[in-house]
Amino acid sequence: MALEILGLGEAMVEFNAARGEAGQFLQGFGGDTSNTVIAASRQGAKTGYLSALGNDVFGGMLRDLWQAEGVSDATVATSDSAPTGIYFVTHGAKGHEFTYYRAGSAAAAYQVAQLPKAAIEQAEILHLSGISLAISANACDAALAAIEIAQKAGRRVSFDTNMRLKLWPLNRARAMIHAVAAKVDILFPSVDEAGVLTGLDDPEAIADFYLGLGCPLVVMKMGKEGAMVADANGKDRIAGLPVDAIDATGAGDTFDGAFLAEYLRTKDARKAARYGNAAAALSTQGYGAVAPIPSREAVEAFLKSRS
Q1: CB contact set of 239 (below 8 Å; sequence gap of 6+)
Q2: Residue 16, domain member (yes or no)
Q3: What element of type H or E holds 271?
Q4: Which range has the worst mean pLDDT, 59-73, 74-88, 235-249, 251-265?
Q5: Using one digit for the tens of pLDDT, what is the confidence trace for 82-104?
Q6: CATH of the domain at 287
Q7: What whole-number distance in Å separates Cα of residue 90 and Cα of residue 201?
Q8: Mean pLDDT (whole number) for 228-241
Q9: DSSP annotation of 250
């Protein structure tokens, strides 16, 4: 079965410090592109993931997650020599603090030669992010090769500029992220990070910058302010949908997945952005990156209530 959306990157198992319970951690899942394909799957899209996991209990947990979510793991390799990445979330005076154990992970060790060419050629959209590039030189090379395979096959590539300066310095992040942004078909910058990457603070100027690089569709995430869609038809702000938010973890990934699923369904970027806004807003009403991602039924009911 050909996939509609194939995500590429690193998925990890999360351990989040329980509030008010010293020494207790709640187990969850993370990884931006994995969150995105799960969000798309909950909207009814046919999705899969492309990566590698260790032959360990954490890798098994992620495969169980994807199976439960309807995400194909047929293109996820298993390594007997490298582990699955994990991370811990603690809560201090500055908010969430993340401690990662991902150096040398199976995903970071992934090689160009491991890429499943046929699966990439058949998926309608290949989705990746700045983190997909940043976790290692090997992973970056594999991501660039996957983009080339997809585009030679006439498939589309979407890219979230998601930037983690703990993984690489700003100058390298800027150079690589912008090199990829110039190649892809759909770009998802967030206004705050894009400001750091471009040195610009006006959303319209940021959109013009990325359009000028050659990306035909820029969908800028603006948090509670909503989104901006910029393409050959102009630049349009899509208003946010206010909710009583308690945790924005993974909201941007939820937006990406919901947008892509709805864009494939409607072929209308502005409708897809409004749908993505709704899904992202709903995802902030629960804790964690995966558990609060809403279903299509929940998103449609929410939109109906706001119409």
Answers
A1: 225, 226, 277
A2: no
A3: helix 269-283
A4: 235-249
A5: 999 999 988 777 777 888 999 99
A6: 3.40.1190.20
A7: 31
A8: 96
A9: T
